[in-house]
Structure formats: C-alpha cells, structure tokens
C-alpha cells in the first residue's frame, strides 16, 4: 500500500485517467502478492493429494445420445457472442488435482455455445489434454490458447513440468484446435513485486531482468515446437500496464488483464474505461514495436458477489448480477463491432479461489460453480460477423 501510494503521488500530475490506471495496477499488485503468499503456503502443505476426480457436472447438459458428447442439446439462452472466454477447469490446481473428462466435456459444451475461443492459464492436472479431448469428442468449433504458468523462484521446475505436459498434448492432438501457447501469467508484475523495491516500471532494470528470465522459457517453448515440427504462436499474458517492451518485442501476442472493478471504476463507465486503458497502455505499446504483436484483453469482467462485506463495493459500484449485466450490455457487442479482442473473465465461479483469497475473487463467473447460468441475459451478437451485424442494425434503425 505504501509503495503504491508513493507511486500514485509521483504520477499524480498526469491526471485522472492515469490515476485510474495506477489504482488498477496497485490493486492488481496487492492481489498478486496475496496469490504468491497463498501459493507458497499451499505448496508447502504436504497434502494427501489426488483427491477424488468425481464428476460434479452430471446432468447439466442433456445429450440425445448419452454416449456421444457431440449430440448435446443447445440452451437457447446462450449466444455465441463472446470473442473469447477465460477458463480454468475445476480441479486443475496442484496438489489436489480433480479435473476429469466428463466435467471438461460439459464445460466445452456450454462454452462452445458462447464463443469459439478460450484461454487456459496453466497446464497442470492434465488440463491441456482434457480440453483438447473434450473439443474432439464434442466436435465443436473451438480454438484454445494453452498456457504455461511458470514461477520465477523455483529454478524452472513449474515451467518444465508444464512444458512436458504441453508437448505431449501437442503430440497427441496436433495443432488444429490450438491457437497458441501462452508462456507466463503476470510474470513481470510478480517479478517486480518480488525484486523491484517498489518499482512498478516494467522497463526498469529489474523489469528487464524478469523479461530476460521469461524469455529463456519462451525460447525453450519455441524450440520444443520446432523439434515437434509444428508452427504455433507463442505469447505471454500480464497485467495491463506491466508489459516489458523487450519481451513484448519478441513474442507473437500479448494478453493484458484490464479490470475496471479493481481500478474502482463505476460500472456505468466501465466498458469505455476498459477500452481506453487497453488502447492507451497495450495497443499503443504494441504498435511501436517492429514485430507487431497481436494484443488482446486477457481478462475483463465484473464480480457478482463478495464473501465479505468489506469487498462488496469497489467504491462507486457493487459486486452484483445486475452490474455484471450492465457490463455485458455495454462491453461485449460494442467491443466485437470495433474489433477489440478480449477474453471475458470468466466461465464459472471458482470455489477454490474463494477459499484461498476471499473477497470477490471466487465470484466472476457467467455461471455459478454448479454450471447453472447466473441471473443474466447473454448479449446477442456475433463476434465473427460483427460488421454485417452492424450494417443490419444501422439499416433497421434508419427505417
Ligand atoms: C490426460 O487426458 C487425456 C484425455 O482425456 C487422457 O487420454 C490421458 O490419459 C490423461 N493423462 C493422464 C496422465 O491422466
Ligand atoms: C525457465 O525459466 C527459469 C527462470 O524463470 C529458469 O530458471 C529455467 O532454467 C528456465 N527453463 C527453461 C528450460 O527454459
Ligand atoms: C469500442 O468498444 C468499446 C467497448 O464497448 C467502447 O467503449 C469504445 O468506445 C469503442 N470504440 C470505438 C472507437 O467505437
Ligand atoms: C477484501 O478481499 C481481500 C481478498 O481479495 C481480503 O484480503 C480483504 O481482507 C478484503 N477486504 C475487506 C475490507 O474485507
Ligand atoms: C477502492 O475502493 C475500496 C472500497 O471503497 C477501498 O477499500 C480501496 O482502498 C480503494 N482502492 C484504491 C486503490 O483506492
Ligand atoms: C446452482 O447454484 C445456484 C447458486 O448457488 C443456486 O441458486 C441453484 O439453485 C443451483 N442449481 C442447481 C441445479 O443446483
């Protein structure tokens, strides 16, 4: 908090918008610090591990042939309106892996009615193969950005473990449904928090050091793919104002977390704020680089609940289904129309996050954790034919 406030003061003259940016960054930083601490505690706990991998999704999606996942019955409330959606399968956290094919098939059946693109964060608990197998069995039109979530402090163990899982998934399933491999999630943000002495400048000396560390893993992933004889994009994901230029200059794509909630932005202006932030912080940065990395919003959304009273409001707005609806109504189809690439955060509520972090962390889903759609109406627009949809709308409005 102290570091954040100092930084905020130092930058105050640049006005209101950058104050929002700073606030968002500070909030994100606090969350990540919590994540690191909890991660360490959890990994120290020597657990009895590999708990039950029982399906929790039985009966959620009907199939006309119970043995053929491609015969699922569509839900008319779901519309394929999202550019992409952020997804973590249930039971994909070490050491308590419980992810299983039946649940992931159900999730893919639901997700495919909302989008043609998903992104994963990591590869542990066999999630890469489970998702690719589910796409195969459901026969849906779906591309997945696989993920490798490395740690900067484990000598490369998490990176290498996940690289090997990714390698075997690519070998088993080929690349038809893989859009890319994302190496690193908020790596520079974490690196600066751990080593930066309060700096939040991703292009500082410490930021460059972090970028070089991650680049070793990016290069290793590229080599792994070359050895397999396949061509796939390799990118990375970070908080929206934490892209290091040298790193972004060497990857194929960058995914940026942009969260109006954590920036204490009112829901009424959240969609516009998100777009402005992304354009100014991320798209502009990429345009200045000669490799022209493809930029997308890695996460944006709105929480519907908080587990404690203190986090029910971000100041101007509360966590609620009504406010998620407002954000959906003002962001999704508009962003499609103007070609903004984003992954809506997120598929369903995640009880493991609520348990570990509390507050709003576990409550960002379009669905509850039991895979029932929340009390929301999914916007009806098509991300793939947005320009013709826009023409139709204009014509209709002018007659
Ligand atoms: C991972 O999932 C795939 C697809 O369901 C399965 O074929 C494979 O056996 C699983 N691997 C492990 C180690 O569980
Ligand atoms: C991955 O990066 C870590 C540092 O973050 C490094 O210790 C490790 O050697 C790297 N491993 C590979 C295979 O690139
Ligand atoms: C693009 O979409 C966003 C998100 O809804 C919106 O806020 C922004 O104003 C749009 N930009 C343009 C140029 O239409
Ligand atoms: C808000 O939630 C965070 C976790 O996201 C928690 O650490 C914090 O104590 C909560 N704050 C209040 C005021 O309840
Ligand atoms: C955002 O608003 C919450 C709730 O009012 C407050 O506790 C928090 O300090 C604010 N965060 C920042 C960075 O101003
Ligand atoms: C799913 O969870 C929601 C929220 O807790 C609850 O209202 C709903 O009744 C549950 N649905 C089923 C089918 O269990």
UniProtKB/TrEMBL annotation:
GO cellular component terms attached to this protein's record: cell surface; extracellular region; fungal-type cell wall; plasma membrane
Chain segments carrying region Disordered: 46-70
InterPro entries: Beta-glucan_modifiers (IPR050732), GH (IPR017853), Glyco_hydro_17 (IPR000490)
Biased composition range(s): Low complexity: 46-61
GO BP term (any one): polysaccharide catabolic process
GO molecular function, one term: glucan endo-1,3-beta-D-glucosidase activity
Keywords (A to Z) from UniProt: Carbohydrate metabolism, Cell membrane, Cell wall, Cell wall biogenesis/degradation, Glycoprotein, Hydrolase, Membrane, Polysaccharide degradation, Secreted, Signal, Transmembrane, Transmembrane helix
Enzyme class, UniProt record, top EC level: hydrolase
Protein's membrane topology: Single-pass type II membrane protein
SUPFAM superfamilies: (Trans)glycosidases
Main localization (coarse): membrane
Enzyme Commission (EC) number: 3.2.1.39
Highest taxon of the lineage: Eukaryota
Catalytic activity: Hydrolysis of (1->3)-beta-D-glucosidic linkages in (1->3)-beta-D-glucans
Location of this chain's protein in the cell: Cell membrane; Secreted, Cell wall
Residue intervals passing through the bilayer: 20-42
Protein's job: Glucanases play a role in cell expansion during growth, in cell-cell fusion during mating, and in spore release during sporulation. This enzyme may be involved in beta-glucan degradation. Active on laminarin and lichenan.
Family, as annotated: Belongs to the glycosyl hydrolase 17 family.
Protein's name in the database: glucan endo-1,3-beta-D-glucosidase
Species of the source: Dendrothele bispora (strain CBS 962.96)
């Amino acid at each position: 908090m102290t570091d954040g406030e100092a930084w905020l003061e130092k930058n105050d003259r640049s006005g209101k918008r950058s104050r929002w940016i700073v606030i968002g960054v500070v909030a994100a930083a606090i969350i990540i610090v919590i994540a690191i601490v909890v991660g360490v505690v959890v990994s120290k706990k020597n657990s009895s591990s590999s708990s039950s991998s029982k399906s929790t999704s039985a009966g959620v999606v009907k199939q006309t042939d119970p043995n053929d996942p491609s015969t699922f019955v569509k839900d008319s409330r779901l519309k394929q309106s999202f550019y992409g959606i952020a997804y973590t399968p249930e039971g994909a956290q070490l050491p308590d892996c419980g992810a299983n094919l039946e649940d992931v098939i159900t999730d893919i059946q639901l997700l495919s009615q909302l989008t043609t693109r998903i992104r994963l964060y990591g590869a542990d608990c066999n999630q890469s193969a489970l998702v690719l197998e589910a796409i195969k069995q459901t026969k849906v039109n779906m591309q997945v950005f696989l993920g490798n979530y490395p740690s900067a402090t484990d000598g490369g163990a998490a990176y290498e473990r996940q690289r090997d899982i990714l390698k075997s998934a690519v070998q088993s399933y080929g690349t038809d449904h893989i859009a890319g491999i994302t190496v690193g999630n908020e790596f520079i943000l974490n690196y600066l928090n751990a080593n930066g002495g309060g700096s939040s400048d991703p292009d500082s000396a410490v930021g460059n050091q972090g970028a070089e560390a991650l680049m070793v893993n990016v290069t290793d992933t590229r080599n792994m793919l070359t050895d397999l004889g396949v061509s796939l994009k390799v990118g990375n994901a970070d908080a929206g104002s934490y892209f290091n230029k040298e790193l972004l200059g060497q990857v194929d794509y960058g995914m940026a977390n942009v969260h109006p909630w954590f920036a204490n932005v009112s829901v009424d202006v959240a969609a516009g704020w998100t777009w402005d932030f992304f354009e100014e912080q991320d798209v502009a940065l990429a345009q200045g680089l000669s490799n022209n990395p493809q930029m997308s919003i890695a996460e944006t959304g709105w929480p519907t609940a908080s587990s404690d009273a203190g986090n029910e409001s971000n100041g101007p707005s509360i966590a609620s289904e009504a406010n998620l609806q407002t954000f959906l109504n003002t962001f999704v189809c508009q962003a499609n129309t103007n070609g903004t690439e984003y992954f809506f955060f997120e598929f369903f509520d995640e009880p493991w996050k609520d348990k570990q972090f509390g507050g709003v962390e576990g409550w960002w889903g379009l669905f509850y954790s039991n895979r029932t759609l929340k009390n929301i109406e999914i916007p009806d627009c098509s991300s793939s034919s947005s320009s013709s949809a826009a023409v139709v709308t204009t014509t209709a409005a002018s007659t």
